[in-house]
Amino acid sequence: MSRGGQDKDRADGPERRCIATGESQPASGLIRFVIGPENQVVPDLAGKLPGRGIWVASDRAALEKAAAKGLFARAAKQPVTVPDDLPGLIERMLARRVVELISLARKSGDAVAGYEKVKDWLGREDADVLIQAEDGSGRGKSKLSTPQWGSYIGWLTADELGLAFGREKVIHAALGAGGLTKRVVEEAQRLKGLRVGRADATSVAGATGAAKAAGGGRAAGKDKRAE
């Protein structure tokens, strides 16, 4: 165990093995759990809680399997209590984490919202990440293209993006090359693993594809319905 009570398998370490899939991958793509003082399974999204880590892929099916098949107890070698609707709990926690990180990026001047501001950042190549609400107009979203060599996030809702920017709803947002951008992308990727497993996965994937299919060219025209 390292300083501060953490063990060697904290989230910034090497690859970890998922107890549900049996596959190893970078820790940034998994959820770390520890066993609490009353034998409860506790999510540790930041990878900082003391104790031996138990790792599960950030994927709805993997989390459901781990909870239903008693894999946490097997990994912990003791009886444990698993929270009800574990995938839903992790999804809500990750969504809140992503929203908070975007809000911090906004406060430091590394994030903007609104069609025209995002279009301007893309045109000046100041944007590293294009973010669009999954429930926004597909036609409006297709008018903006993912930055070359950049990233796209399309599985947050307009309400969630609104919380990040202190507005009611936001459809279009962008992140610059600030210090929080990498963390936002990594946490958003973990969230994607939970959301693409939902019943509306097809619509989420469709929105993502529409934005990327615009490819190559920069923004054209104005989405009058978009914030």
From TrEMBL:
Bias category Basic and acidic residues: which stretches? 1-18
- Which portions of this protein are annotated as coiled-coil regions? none
The residues covered by the YlxR domain are 16-85
> What SUPFAM superfamilies has UniProt attached to this entry?
L30e-like, YlxR-like
Q: Where is this region: Disordered?
A: 1-24, 205-227
Q: What is this protein called?
A: YlxR domain-containing protein
- Organism this protein belongs to: Salipiger abyssi
